[in-house]
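During the second year of the project, the team shifted from modelling isolated chains to modelling whole assemblies. The rationale, set out in the original proposal, was that interfaces cannot be judged from single-chain predictions alone. As a representative example for this report, we include one of the complexes processed in the last quarter. Its constituent sequences, exactly as entered into the pipeline, are reproduced here:
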Amino acid sequence: MHASLAQSLTDVGFEWPTWGETLRVLTLRAGYNTAVVVLGAALLGVASGVVGAFTTLRKRALMGDALSHASLPGVVGAFLLAAALGLNSHSVGLLLVGAAVSAILGVLVVQWITSATRLGEDVAIGAVLSVFFGAGVVLLSVAQAIPGLSQGGIRSYIYGQTAAMSVGDAKLMAAAAALAGLAAILLRKEFALVCFDAGFARAQGWSVSLVDLLLMALLVMVAVVGMQAVGLLLMVAMLIIPAASARFWTDRVGRMVWLSAVIGGLGGYLGASASALASRLPAGAVIVLICGALFVLSMFFAPVRGVIAELVRQSRLRLRIATDHALEALIVAEDSRAMAASPTIGAAMSWWLRRQGLASAEGARLVPSAAGLERGRRVRRNHVLWTRYLTEYADVAPNHVDWSADQIEHVLGAELTAELEALLRRDDAQRSGAS
Amino acid sequence: MSDSLYAFVSIDLPAMTAGVLAAVVCALLGSFLVLRRQSLAGDAISHSVLPGLVVGFLVSGTRDALPMFLGAGVAALVSVALIGAVRRFGRVEPGAAMGVVFSIMFALGVVLLEQAAARQVDLDADCVLHGQLETIFWFPPSVWGDFFSWSTLQQTPRQVVVLAATLGVCAAFVAVFFKELRLAAFDPGLADALGFRSGAIHAGLMALVAAATVASFEAVGSILVVAMLICPAATARLLTDRLGSQLLVSVLVAALTGVGGYLLGAFGPEPLGLPGAVNAAGMITVVAGLVLALACLAAPRHGVIARTVRRRRLGARVAREDALAALYRLEEQRLPATPAAIATLIGVAAESERSIRLAERAGQAEHDGAAYRLTPAGRAEAKQIIRSHRLWESYLVDEAGLRPDHVHGLATQLEHLAREQGRVAPDIDRAVDPHEREIPASD
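Output from the structure prediction step:
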């Protein structure tokens, strides 16, 4: 069983491309068609990265999901209408218009449900995407039932046909990327403001709904253009994954948009190349998987919001707090020599203190060094200051203070400590003057 | 049994039953998802099962249902866990976390599907997305008497049996944990504080959603699953405010939608001159959407129409009351109630014209040359309005400590609101308001 499984999973006759071939594809010299596909996919990645960055920040990541699904009845409807009127039912322009119309309708319905009823945005998005798509499926079955009507063009909207991308398609991608980039540059301030604080933007006199509308228009444009290339679901991915990946690397909007564009472009470029090199790797899916790999890398290794960076930060803080506590305990023991027993400090911590030069071993006893003494005193003093502040200003019951004081003393900076000291000193002076 | 009836019982009845069962299972669980604002979980799960399906198929090498079910179930649970992990450890907002996970898993499924296709096996993404209700058949006995025998039961289509079993499990879960589910849906924090583990309840719910998704997609496709997890529950949410009736209504709506959508899909196109039947799962979805749209518009309390009517009525009442109060004040000061004088008191000229017209139409005000005056009925109500207003002003100055020149606007709002709720004024015994004006007696 296992042997047959192993065989069935490896038995796909995969041939690794040679280095030369790989290089030719990556440098766009592997034939005209391949170059068009690789460039087109990269441009689409850039466009969706830019637009996705803003929609994700606006917490509307799944809006792309809704409107991509919502475009299906428009595509099939346009197709059927064209067939009924005797027009060319495979004209890309016609299908695009149909897709855009029903996608916009879907967005409007989502906004109407959210604002006019008690239902949440999740319900609105889910209802629109499933019902519109269901209507598309019904229309599709109608189209199937009509004899002599080939519907190849429609299926590519659902599953995508990246490898069949034409020069015209690539030009469309380029136009979409240029438009998205231009809008992002011109409307950077407006988009950022609305994404971060819509209430503030409104109070400042910006028309939030107008900015939102522009953003949605960009989203519809990129989604509709991209869908015929990478397919419906993979379009959703392109609108979310690069933006979510970029978020890990920075806290600044401008940089995030750039990074998101780069990640999307890179995903499109590498994915289309990989698909050109190996048979049986559908380009749309591979693009998404490469973006997914970039997401995982970003999530773990990005220095700003990455998981590992966060872990390191947390353990550093924990170590500092533990060191502070140990030193404080040492100082308390030093100050009351009568109690000869040295405080309980674990072997690891005692090693760490000696390594840091904060203490030295005298026989079995651990004695703080000058630096250790200074730091310990500072911690002790902060603790006392903070305790007093909490009881006198924050109205915390005295027997509850120690716990919270313990939490905060390690976070207090030098400046805040000085301020607190001054505050308490002034207060003491006033009180003695009054009495 | 006639031929057309036999055809209905063997072709349409099993498919319709499967559709209705799937719809009911999803609606039952969907209510909790809608209340927790996580209704897109079905969308995420139903796309994430694709790689599991394909792996189940590749491993077993057959299109047997069991390995594919297992694979899909595992993939569904993995996707739920991954979404949670991305949200928690990556601090990514829920929508984006879902989008990232399900689209990557779907892409993985597409790549795997391509590998399966390489071995000339027909495993179609279409059937996952759109469902294959039309392929469920049943060969019933030709005599009515045999319908309830054991051998007939054994002939029941597998999809129907699986869905019925899933419905049983879900209904049992909801019945046993009703209290916990309710608490966790409305106030997870309180649930935790009371010692119910809302996290565990939520995990159980998600596992059932995964099970329902996997059990349903073979028969009805993922689009119907997503729609049925959301639309009936959302419809019920607009029709009721109690969880018990919410569940009942959503299940009822789902069942009716299932029957109606199927019949419409199977028998609707022919009279319209279209060839054959249209996709039944898609049709059920569309009907569910139409029902939801109807509820959005026409629900008695929460519908858009009812809300607009309520707001309009309140607006008209407030406008009429403003006119009465203005007329009363002018009368009190022995000033002529010209339109200009009334407009000054009400504030907006256009608004005051409407107010006067409304009062006139209600028989509470009438022309008196160029000016207006209150009719006896109008004066009686105006007295109560002014009484309410001045008592509120007194209350705001005496009890809330506001300055007398700051209370007029607030008192105007309170007077309208209090009257809307059938209460007139605070219970204060005073003869004059903070501006030393007389407070009319109550009637």
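The first strand of chain B starts at residue 365 and ends at 368. Residues 293 and 402 of chain B are 47 Å apart (CA to CA).
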